[in-house]
Amino acid sequence: MLEKLLSNKMASLLLCFVLLSCSGGSDSISTSVVSPDPVTETPESPVTCVNAQYPILSASFEGEVDADFTAAKTIDADTTPDSRWSALGTQQALIFDLGAIMTVGSLKIKWHQGAQRQAYFKVETSIDQGTWQNVLTDSTSSGKHSGFEQVNLISSDARFIKLIGMGNSVNDWNSIVEVQAHSCEGADGEILDSFPNELGIELIDWYLSVPTDEDNSGTSDSIDENALAAGYTNSEYFYTSADNGIVMRTPSYGFKTSANTSYVRVELREMLRRGDSSIRTQGVNKNNWVFGSASNLTQADAGGVDGELNVTLAVNNVTTTGENYQIGRLVIGQIHANDDEPIRLYYRKLPNNNKGSIYFAHESRVGGSDEVYVELIGSRNNSASDPSDGIALHEKFSYRINVTANLLTVTIIREGKDDVEASLDMSDSLFDTQDQYHYFKVGVYHLNNSSDIDEYAQATFYAIRNAHNGYAASE
């Protein structure tokens, strides 16, 4: 009997091990199964496209075209308006030959009158011109880009690119100044999807000067308040930065605002009329402001009384060659009167210095008087030593220009540092007479016309706010 019980007990134990668990009174036995760790797949890192701009071997067009506006002009590196291809009608196809099969991800196109009208177009690519692949269907340009505009495509291997024009928002002309072919979507990343009017800087009370001559006037182009507020941009001179600022870039040479000026600028001019073209730009009127020390009648005629300008920016580039007194200097803010300048605010960094200086000039209307210079940070001297408390390139800072009656006050503001401030009494400068009017200017007024030809000045502006007594849109 005992032998039989032991035999049954051993059978039960064996069955427990087979089933991997069992229980029963004091003789229960339990086992646990440890599952293996799950296999985790490591996600692949996204492939970064390294962009290449391809040389375009040739550009051809089979239709009728004016001899002055041939296809070849779209690849001649001349971005002036007269160097363009133009053809009338829909389905007008330009064909570009890269000379070899390449991966094409985007184009950069400078449309003729690209900031005044939208172009209608599509793009196809081919390896052999026998079979064509549609890589962009029925697209429309922004109507905001005066310079190059980014056009992303379905990536394809191609030797030939066909750009088919279908007229524009004004007429049936197809006109292209220049085309570039790039390997990556987004090309080199220099042209962003955002526009200057989307960054929180109110542009309806400014107009812009850029050193182009799209209207063949012989002077630089002026972009009015309405166009700025609608999103005007120029990939060379006035565009959005990756850190949400407005870049203003000024070459040393280019079209100027008039025959009377020696220097090139990319600069905003205050326009209190806010797009109302029935108000003249000049004069004591609702477009301009006057000093609080002017007569009551003069104040009543003006768009505002006294003024304050608050700007946050970083200077990104200055010149390193040229005449000794011109190297590294630019004006980043002004008050302009009829003919004179109550203030020009300078930034200057010399080539051997790590940081730049800030100073301003005051120009009196009194005949024979010299300009007054006031140094705020560092020195304006042509051989100034590196200012220990100076401002480096790419360093953000702010300035405030305030006029109250005849008192001019300039303040430099930096995070973590004490403000630097200076005031100047303008009572004897004759800016409060009944004929004198004023407006702020902000940008890059590039005071070097002797540098190497490829040099430039550049600053990025993150905040621009203007205010006047009696001006309803003051910020």
- Return the average pLDDT rounded to an integer: 92
By DSSP, the count of extended strands is 24
Shape: globular
The biggest beta sheet reads: 8 strands, antiparallel
Helix/strand/pairing category: mainly beta
Percent of residues in beta strands: 35-45%
Keywords:
475 residues, mainly beta, 3 helices
Set out the fold topology.
Blueprint: H1 2-19, E1 53-54, E2 58-61, E3 85-88, E4 92-111, E5 119-126, E6 133-140, E7 149-168, E8 173-182, E9 206-210, E10 221-223, H2 225-229, E11 238-240, E12 246-251, E13 264-270, E14 289-290, H3 296-301, E15 304-317, E16 329-336, E17 343-348, E18 357-362, E19 372-377, E20 397-404, E21 407-413, E22 420-425, E23 439-446, E24 456-469
Parallel strand pairs: 14-15
Antiparallel strand pairs: 1-8, 2-4, 3-8, 4-7, 4-8, 5-6, 5-7, 9-10, 9-13, 11-12, 12-24, 13-23, 15-20, 15-24, 16-17, 16-23, 17-18, 18-19, 20-21, 21-22
Write up this protein.
- Helix content is 6%, strand content 39%.
- The chain is built from 3 helices and 24 strands.
- The strands form 3 sheets. Strands 1, 2, 3, 4, 5, 6, 7 and 8 form an 8-stranded antiparallel β-sheet that branches.
- A hairpin with a 5-residue loop joins strand 11 and strand 12 (246-251).
- The protein is globular and about 80 Å long.
- The N and C termini lie far apart (105 Å).
- The relative contact order is 0.12.
